[in-house]
Amino acid sequence: MVKQGHYAKSSRRQRVRRLKQRHQVQADRVIAPNAVTEFLLVRYHLTRGKQQRPVVRKTMQHFLTQWLSLAFGSETTTWSLTTTTVKTLQQFNLQLPWQGYAIIDQNWVDFQAFLIKEVPAVPLQDRLRLSEPFTLASGQAMLSQQLAINALLGLSGSEQQLAQLKKAQIEALQASIQGSNGIDWVKVASLLGPLKSPSIVTSEVQTWLTQLKKLTTADFD
To answer: What is the pTM of this model?
Structure first.
């Protein structure tokens, strides 16, 4: 008969070995900070992309890529959802057709839900955290403000001239764009109109921009 003491020691050794193995597996799963963007883009494709139309998937992936680039630029492990989103909209400005902004508007809630769930779960040595979430209403307010700025930027012709515009002008145009039922995309389309494609883009980006420009206001009713 095996002695109880011997059995207990053997059982403890097995538990210790399992704990060491589990710890090693967790350590092996840790990724480098420079792999976070690719990791989250893959997660987005797996959890959202397969259910989205190609033009929606490409738009949100471009937006997510830029969002993450700016988040990392903050040089902190606590990312502000609101601040980073405002900066991302500013970064796109007139480079993104109004149809791209309309797609973002349709995906505000889902986009933030993805970030809240996936960003803190990225297997980093120092985990990331999120702060300052935004509501659908505040998200649309950020978006309508950027659209108003884009419209004025298109009229003024340069950012230097735009800097001279008064805050009241931006707010007045923003109020005319956003009503109680959301953003008026018919008015946005008339204000912004078709944009010229950037002179230097990859064939993939050109295909995406072409797909966006084929969308009409009827697609966002």
So the answer is: 0.83
